[in-house]
Structures are given as structure tokens and as C-alpha cells.
């Protein structure tokens, strides 16, 4: 990653977003990662097959470009080369080395990601990079790596933060007023690897898998391209399973922290579980629509070799209009909640019924997302006067378009109402009747 101009100016670097000169990281990353379905059962074959499937299923053409290796790729016993200290790939899983996987992936016009950890060991107990940042960044660069997911397990006691902030634990985060979380040990651990990546003669997208700790949103902007904001995702609608969370608790946190996302700076709501576990069709749809609306990285986590046979899932992951919203070249902000619904005031935190009425903008118009958190189908109404970018035009006729089907629904005055199935999300685009943007100067922030 070469230096951007602002970073040559010393202190100014702390404020600058990390946008690589070639544009890497400006928009949310799109790709595939092995963890959600394969965990440690990975091999070169898994990744080269995924790369071919991304091409064959048309997903590459839609923008999915990163093929990301998650934990368990290195040799658990040998760990590092006794002479060079370099990480050693597991010879059973990658008999030709990571280099060969990178060659295959690159030959298909795709990029290869890898996984590391800002502690002594990864979450799976493989060698971590703490204290080896420069060497590991150079090794990744030498192998042809394009993306690093950097996890946060096994932090030794001398690196534990003076003040702890864990988003799931409201009692944490008792730092003195004005405390700069960018000076925390967590920020230092992540910045050391970020600096090491920037010294390499290769652009490596940097994904901080820091689970929202140490208020990463306040320093992630200058450290990496995206940062995890919460614990791991789990393919369930609500609730929690060990340290992993269903969709609604994550959307709830997003409703309270959406504004930290913009170009080159992305809240990461974790990899997609679309197609995994026992979500319903509607829950799969809500998951994808909301991750697109939030401008989260879109990292598929379901096996691709069977995806051609799972047409409804492939259709969801291939929805051109939702992807276009996520990847909009002009408007970088996440959609914002404009009304909580379920009779709650704005700003209410509710892990089962998070904010239900969202609005965002793109080059094509104003987009409204209506999330039904109820266990029954409900009528949901987008009242134009309630929607900040439309309130001035609330008495005009407006054209409502369904992003799911790609079809216009019709023109409406004052409001548009539809039935939303249980746990489904309506994704609407609103323009003037002649298809023009109703308020191009508006952005959620
Ligand atoms: C990231 O930093 C840049 C430069 O200071 C700033 O313009 C931008 O608003 C920041 N982005 C977010 C999401 O905070
Ligand atoms: C591991 O993956 C291989 C092939 O990818 C598969 O045949 C095998 O069943 C998997 N093992 C487990 C325990 O999931
Ligand atoms: C360690 O690195 C040396 C020097 O590059 C190399 O000759 C040797 O094969 C490596 N050993 C292992 C176990 O990879
Ligand atoms: C940096 O990478 C470019 C393109 O791969 C290569 O041509 C150049 O020789 C490299 N420079 C150094 C110093 O390694
Ligand atoms: C939604 O995804 C789940 C996996 O979470 C899958 O079992 C289910 O069949 C999907 N729904 C449909 C209709 O494809
Ligand atoms: C529209 O909503 C915005 C944001 O809530 C508010 O500042 C503005 O005054 C409203 N305009 C009208 C015409 O109601």
C-alpha cells in the first residue's frame, strides 16, 4: 500500500482516511470468505474452486472480487520458520504454498485475502502476528496477498487496554471524559500492522476484525479500510449463540452507529450468512438488503459449489440494484434510520426490534428500506413527509420502484404502503415521476 499524500504530513495522517491511490478500500469490499461454512476445513482446492465459481456464477461481474482465506491456513505445530521466522503454510492444506493459490486466483482476475491476528495466537490457536507485523506484512506481500482480515484473539496481558470498551457490554468503556481511544493499546496493535502493510510494494486492503473494541470507529478511519463493529455473526434472526449474534442485535447496533461509515471508512457488520443455517427466504433477503444499505463489506460466507443449485440464494446475492446502492460512486454514507417504528422513540436500543424505517441516497434516487421485525406480516407505510430528503416534496406525486424486482410499482402521493412479510425487508427507490433524483443535495450526514 503506497502512502497517500496526507500521510506524508505527519500529524495530519491521524485524521486522514486510508484510501489507497488505486482506489482500494474506497467502497465496501466484496468477495467470499471461508469461515462461516468451512471453518478450519480448508485447502487450496476450496479457494481455487470458489474463484472459478465466482466467475462462472456471474458474481465476479457483479463486483465480488476477493477470495479470502480465514483462520487455520498456517502450520499449527511448526508455526514459523526457524531461520527466517516467516509464517509456514500448512503443507497438507496448501501443498504448493499460498503463492500458488494466489497465482490461480489472480489468473482469473480476482484477488486473494488472508487472515492474521493482532495477538500471540489466532482465535484457532495458530501463530499470531503481534511482534512480527513487518515480517508478516512482507511475507503476505511476497505471496501476492491483496486483503488482510486481522483478528483480535489472544492478546497478552501487557497489551490489554487501560480502559476497556466492548460494545456488547454497556458497563464497559468507562474512560475519563475526552479520552482518545486512538491511543489505546488496541489501536496501537492494529496501527502497527497497518503501517507495516503500507510499507509494502503492494496494495493490501486492511480489514480490522476488532469487534468494535476500544471504540474502533473513532480511529479505524486512519488505520484501515473497514472495521468490525460487533461480535461474530451467526445465521439466526435474533439472539446469541456463544459469542456470536443473530441479525437483529447487529442491526440494532448499526442503527446507533451508522454514521461512522463513508468512502474509505466502513463499519463492518460481519460476513454474510445468506444461505447458511436456518434463515427463511425473507430473513435471507433482509440480511442482504440491510448489509447493502449499511454499506457494509459484502463478503459471502456460503459454499459456492452448490450455489448454482440454490437459485433463490444466488438471486439474493446477485441483486444488481442492492449491490449498486452499496457500491454507489457518489454517495458514501450508510442509510440511516428515519423512524424506529413499533411505537418507540428515535434512538431506542432494542435487540429484537431495531429501527425499522431506513433511508439512504444513491445516484439514482432516494432509497427506503422497511424492515418487518414482527413475527407476522404487517402493513408498512413510507410517509413521504416523515422521510427527511422527501419532506419538502411530500405533497407531490413520486415514483416508487421495487429494488427486489427491478420494476416500477407506480406513482404515489403522500405515502406508499405495502404488506411486508414477517422478517422481510422492502427495498424501494423513490424518484420524481419522470425518474429524476428528488433531492440530489441530501445525504444522511
Ligand atoms: C475519515 O477521515 C476523513 C479525513 O479526515 C474524513 O473526511 C471522513 O469524514 C472520515 N470518515 C468517517 C466516516 O469518519
Ligand atoms: C472437509 O472438506 C472436505 C472436502 O472439501 C469434505 O469432503 C469433508 O467432508 C469435510 N469434512 C468435514 C468434517 O466437514
Ligand atoms: C525456512 O527457510 C529457509 C530459508 O528460506 C528454507 O530453506 C527452509 O526450507 C524453510 N523451512 C521450512 C520448514 O519451511
Ligand atoms: C514494486 O512492484 C512493481 C510492480 O509489481 C515492480 O515492478 C517493482 O519492481 C517493485 N519495486 C520494488 C522496490 O520491489
Ligand atoms: C435462506 O437461507 C437458508 C440458510 O440460511 C436456507 O436454508 C433457506 O433455504 C434459504 N431460503 C430460501 C427460500 O432459499
Ligand atoms: C425535513 O426534515 C429535516 C430533517 O428532519 C428537517 O430539518 C427539515 O426542516 C424538514 N423540512 C420540512 C419542509 O419539513
From TrEMBL:
Annotated Alpha galactosidase C-terminal domain residues: 354-430
Source taxon at top rank: Eukaryota
Alphabetical list of Pfam families matching this protein: Melibiase_2 (PF16499), Melibiase_C (PF17801)
Keywords, sorted A to Z: Disulfide bond, Glycoprotein, Glycosidase, Hydrolase, Secreted, Signal
Chief place where the protein resides: secreted
Signal peptide stretch: 1-17
Enzyme Commission no: 3.2.1.22
Reaction equations catalysed: Hydrolysis of terminal, non-reducing alpha-D-galactose residues in alpha-D-galactosides, including galactose oligosaccharides, galactomannans and galactolipids
Top-rank EC class of the record's enzyme: hydrolase
Record-linked SUPFAM superfamilies: (Trans)glycosidases, Glycosyl hydrolase domain
Record-level GO BP terms: carbohydrate metabolic process
Family: Belongs to the glycosyl hydrolase 27 family.
Role summary: Hydrolyzes a variety of simple alpha-D-galactoside as well as more complex molecules such as oligosaccharides and polysaccharides.
Protein name according to UniProt: Alpha-galactosidase
Organism, as annotated: Triangularia verruculosa
Amino acid at each position: 500500500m503506497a502512502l497517500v499524500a496526507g500521510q506524508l504530513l505527519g500529524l495530519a495522517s491521524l485524521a486522514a482516511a486510508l484510501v489507497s491511490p488505486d482506489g482500494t478500500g474506497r467502497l465496501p469490499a466484496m468477495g467470499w470468505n471461508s469461515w462461516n461454512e468451512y471453518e478450519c476445513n480448508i485447502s487450496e482446492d476450496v479457494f481455487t474452486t470458489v474463484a472459478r465459481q465466482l466467475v462462472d456464477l456471474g458474481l465476479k461481474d457483479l463486483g465480488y472480487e476477493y477470495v479470502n482465506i480465514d483462520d487455520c491456513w498456517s502450520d499449527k505445530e511448526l508455526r514459523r520458520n526457524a531461520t527466517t521466522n516467516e509464517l509456514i503454510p500448512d503443507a497438507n492444506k496448501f501443498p504448493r504454498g499460498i503463492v500458488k493459490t494466489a497465482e490461480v486466483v489472480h489468473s482469473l482476475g480476482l484477488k486473494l485475502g488472508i487472515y492474521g491476528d493482532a495477538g500471540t495466537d489466532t482465535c484457532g490457536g495458530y501463530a499470531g502476528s503481534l511482534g512480527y507485523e513487518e515480517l508478516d506484512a512482507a511475507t503476505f506481500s511476497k505471496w501476492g496477498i491483496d486483503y488482510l482480515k486481522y483478528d483480535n484473539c489472544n492478546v497478552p496481558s501487557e497489551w490489554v487496554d487501560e480502559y476497556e470498551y466492548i460494545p456488547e457490554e454497556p458497563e464497559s468503556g468507562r474512560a475519563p471524559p475526552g479520552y482518545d481511544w486512538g491511543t489505546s493499546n488496541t489501536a496501537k496493535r492494529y496501527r502497527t500492522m497497518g503501517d507495516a502493510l503500507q510499507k509494502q510494494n503492494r496494495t493490501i486492503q486492511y480489514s480490522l476484525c476488532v469487534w468494535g473494541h476500544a471504540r474502533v470507529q473513532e480511529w479505524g478511519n486512519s488505520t484501515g479500510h473497514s472495521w468490525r463493529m460487533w461480535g461474530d455473526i451467526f445465521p439466526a434472526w435474533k439472539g446469541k449463540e456463544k459469542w456470536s449474534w443473530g441479525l437483529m442485535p447487529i442491526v440494532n447496533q448499526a442503527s446507533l452507529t451508522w454514521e461512522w461509515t463513508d468512502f474509505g471508512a466502513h463499519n463492518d457488520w460481519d460476513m454474510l450468512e445468506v444461505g447458511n443455517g436456518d434463515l427463511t427466504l425473507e430473513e435471507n433477503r433482509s440480511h442482504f438488503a440491510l448489509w447493502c444499505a449499511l454499506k457494509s463489506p459484502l463478503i459471502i460466507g456460503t459454499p459456492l459449489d452448490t450455489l448454482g443449485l440454490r437459485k433463490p440464494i444466488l438471486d439474493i446475492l446477485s441483486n444488481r440494484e442492492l449491490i449498486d446502492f452499496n457500491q454507489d460512486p457518489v454517495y458514501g454514507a450508510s442509510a440511516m434510520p428515519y423512524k424506529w417504528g413499533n411505537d418507540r422513540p428515535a434512538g431506542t436500543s432494542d435487540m429484537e426490534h431495531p429501527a425499522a424505517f431506513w433511508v439512504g441516497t444513491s445516484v439514482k434516487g432516494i432509497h427506503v428500506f422497511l424492515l418487518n421485525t414482527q413475527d407476522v406480516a404487517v402493513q408498512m407505510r413510507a410517509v413521504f413527509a416523515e422521510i427527511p430528503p422527501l419532506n419538502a416534496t411530500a405533497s407531490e406525486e413520486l415514483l416508487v420502484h421495487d429494488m427486489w424486482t427491478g420494476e416500477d410499482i407506480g406513482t404515489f402521493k403522500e405515502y406508499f404502503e405495502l404488506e411486508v412479510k414477517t422478517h422481510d425487508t422492502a427495498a424501494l427507490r423513490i424518484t420524481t415521476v419522470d425518474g429524476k433524483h428528488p433531492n440530489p443535495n441530501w445525504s444522511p450526514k
